[in-house]
């Protein structure tokens, strides 16, 4: 499995029913749109995918249905991370059977394990599955930043194949690039505002939430970087800020989901307690979509 390019951490479509059940018709529409737009992977149940409010049974069912929809066109990454090593192992085994191609495993949150505990946590998970594992570093949400030492140690594990860094700290990312040199482990950027500098530092691609909406723009940025069209890439990177400015107007992922809805795919609202965006935010989203010539 080749890890490269733009991988979309997709929003999880929900119906507007009492239990906010998963909308599989909208899931297919979204995935087809993204693959047609040139993304190199689909990542379900990350931060934008609301993994923290989706049950293990729903995770397994969604993995199964997503694998059927993708039908081998691109790799399927599934978020199985959590606070309990055993619970992560059990869920990882279930999604492996359900058709996942790779796992994304966020660091524990709420608690703050030390480096040796984190290494042990990830080694036990890796030993329990034959799937490739992507480490997920997002300190603003977990209060843990994976150290260079931890990444160096985990790069020695055969099926730990990549790290997604959403710290937004280029020195941190540079440390990961150094830690993985000479190994099979790849570095992916998870901060959409830093795609260009990260790839220039040695990242092989981006897990970019904004690609749910401005798919061709984000894929175009990656392609410009690969073609060494630096001026074009810098301009496209800067233009992502139009969308990022609007994303701050609601609780994650409410604005992202509403943006997808306004493009005609009924992904529904975020699960409660996150509420739908207010009408004035709707207007700002429409202005943003017009700026990218999407409506």
Automatic annotation (TrEMBL):
EC number of this enzyme: 4.3.3.7
Positions contributing to pyruvate binding: 207
UniProt record, GO biological process: diaminopimelate biosynthetic process; lysine biosynthetic process via diaminopimelate
Entry annotated with the keyword Plastid: no
Enzyme class: lyase
Pathway annotation: Amino-acid biosynthesis; L-lysine biosynthesis via DAP pathway; (S)-tetrahydrodipicolinate from L-aspartate: step 3/4
Active site: 136, 164
UniProt xrefs under SMART domains: DHDPS (SM01130)
MF annotations from Gene Ontology: 4-hydroxy-tetrahydrodipicolinate synthase activity
Reactions catalysed, as given in the entry: L-aspartate 4-semialdehyde + pyruvate = (2S,4S)-4-hydroxy-2,3,4,5-tetrahydrodipicolinate + H2O + H(+)
Keywords from the UniProt entry: Amino-acid biosynthesis, Cytoplasm, Diaminopimelate biosynthesis, Lyase, Lysine biosynthesis, Schiff base
Role this protein plays: Catalyzes the condensation of (S)-aspartate-beta-semialdehyde [(S)-ASA] and pyruvate to 4-hydroxy-tetrahydrodipicolinate (HTPA).
Family membership noted in the UniProt record: Belongs to the DapA family.
Name of the protein described by the UniProt record: 4-hydroxy-tetrahydrodipicolinate synthase
Protein source organism: Faecalicoccus pleomorphus
Gene designation per UniProt: dapA
């Amino acid at each position: 499995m080749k890890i490269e390019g733009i991988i979309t951490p997709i929003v999880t479509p929900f119906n507007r029913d009492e239990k906010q059940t998963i909308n599989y018709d909208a899931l297919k529409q979204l995935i087809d749109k993204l693959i047609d737009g040139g993304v190199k992977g689909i990542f379900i149940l990350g931060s934008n995918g609301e993994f923290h409010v989706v049950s293990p049974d729903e995770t397994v069912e969604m993995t199964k249905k997503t694998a059927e929809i993708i039908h081998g066109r691109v790799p399927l990454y599934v978020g199985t991370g959590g606070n309990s090593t055993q619970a992560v192992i059990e869920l990882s085994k279930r999604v492996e059977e359900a058709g996942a191609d790779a796992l994304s495993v966020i660091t524990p949150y709420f608690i703050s394990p030390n480096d040796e505990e984190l290494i042990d946590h990830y080694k036990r998970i890796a030993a329990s599955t034959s799937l490739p594992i992507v480490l997920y570093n997002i300190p603003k949400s977990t209060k843990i930043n994976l150290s260079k030492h931890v990444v160096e140690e985990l790069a020695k594990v055969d099926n730990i194949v990549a790290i997604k860094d959403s710290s937004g700290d280029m020195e941190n990312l540079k440390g990961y690039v150094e830690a993985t040199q000479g190994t099979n482990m790849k570095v992916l950027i998870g901060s959409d505002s830093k795609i260009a500098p990260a790839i220039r530092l040695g990242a092989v691609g981006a897990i970019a939430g904004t690609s749910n909406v401005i798919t061709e723009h984000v894929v175009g940025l990656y392609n410009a970087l690969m073609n060494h069209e630096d001026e074009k890439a810098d301009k496209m990177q800067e233009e992502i800020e139009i969308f990022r400015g609007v994303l701050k107007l609601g609780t994650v992922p409410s604005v992202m989901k509403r943006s997808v809805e306004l493009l005609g795919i009924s992904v529904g609202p975020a699960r409660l307690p996150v509420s739908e965006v207010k009408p004035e935010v709707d207007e700002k989203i429409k202005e943003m979509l017009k700026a990218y010539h999407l409506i």
